[in-house]
Amino acid sequence: MQSIERCDVAILVIDAVSGITAQDTHIAGFIKDAWKSVILAVNKWDLIEKDSYTAIEFENRIRQELNFLPYVHCVYFSRNWPTRASNFATGDGSSKRAPV
Question: Which of 48, 43, 6 minimizes the C-alpha distance to 24?
Fold first, then answer.
């Protein structure tokens, strides 16, 4: 709770394989109650079998389960995709690496 209170933007990391868990929903509630901005980081995206609609369907399911956070921005990444991870960290879509 203290970390949420101190932050300006909370990053809620969820596992793409297991989806939104009860604990994720609980933490998201804390973030909402603290009036913090939030980015939902979907990790292990490479483990999901995908087609052209997978990300859209996954995000719709997230928005349904976290309907109290209609403004949440979702970012999909994986440890195996360093460019996506660095784009997520820098936020500018560039290919430069973010400081670790």
Answer: 43
What pTM, to 2 d.p., does this model score? 0.75
Q: What is the spatial distance between Cα 15 and Cα 21, in angstroms, rounded to a whole number?
A: 9
With beta carbons less than 8 A apart as the criterion, state whether 14 and 43 touch.
yes
Fold classification of 2-90 (topology level): Rossmann fold (3.40.50)
Query: CA 36, CA 13: separation in Å to the nearest integer?
Result: 15
CA distance 41 to 45: 10
3-class state of residue 76 by DSSP: strand
d(CA 79, CA 38): 21
The CA-CA-CA angle for residues 81, 83, 86, to 5°, reads 110
- Domain spans in the chain, listed from the N-terminal domain onward: 2-90
Per residue in 18-64, pLDDT (tens digit) is 999 999 999 999 999 999 999 999 999 989 888 889 989 999 999 99
Identify whether the C-beta of residue 36 lies closer than 8 Å to the C-beta of residue 7.
Answer: yes
